[in-house]
Amino acid sequence: MSISEAESAVMQVLWNAHPLAAEEIVAALGDARQWQEATVKTLLNRLLNKGAVAAVRDGRRYLYSPVLQRDAYVHAQSKDLLDRLFGGRVAPLVAHFSARRKLSKKDVAELRRLIAELPDE
C-alpha cells in the first residue's frame, strides 16, 4: 500500500490515539502542519479509499481509526528502502550512515548489542 508523506502524518496521529474526529487530527498535527480541516478530510478520504483507515459515524461527524498497523507499514517501507537503494541488504545501509558520520556512539553500541543478540545460523 502506497502512502504519501502527508498521509503518513495523519496515520501517525491515528496510531498514537484513536478513534479521532477530523478536527481532533487537525489539533494533534498542530503548528507543525497548519493544515485546515478540509485538507485533513481529503487525506482521510484517500486513506479510506486505500483501506488504511476505517470510519464510524458519530452523530454529525466521523471517527477514524487505523486499519493499517504501524508495524506492517514500517516493515513495508523499510523493505522498500533496502530493496531500492541497497539491494535488499542491511550492511550497505549501515555502512552508508557510518561513512557519513551519522551514527552516534549510542547508535553503534545499540547495533553491537543487536548483532550480539542474533541467533547463530
Describe this structure in words.
With 121 residues, the protein is mainly alpha-helical. It has six helices and three strands. It has helices spanning 5-16, 22-33, 37-50, 70-86, 90-99, 105-117; strands spanning 20-21, 53-58, 61-66. Strands 1-3-2 form a three-stranded antiparallel beta sheet. The radius of gyration is 19 Å and the shape is elongated. It starts with a helix and ends with a helix.
Please count the helical segments. Answer: 6
SSE string: HEHHEEHHH
Low-confidence stretches: none
SS-based class: mainly alpha
Report the end-to-end length measured between terminal Cα atoms.
32 Å
Outline the biggest β-sheet. 3 strands, antiparallel
Helix content estimate: 55-70%
> What is the general shape?
elongated
Mean pLDDT over all positions: 92
Number of strands: 3
Which strand order does the major sheet show? 1-3-2
Proportion of residues in extended strands: 5-15%
Output the radius of gyration. 19 Å
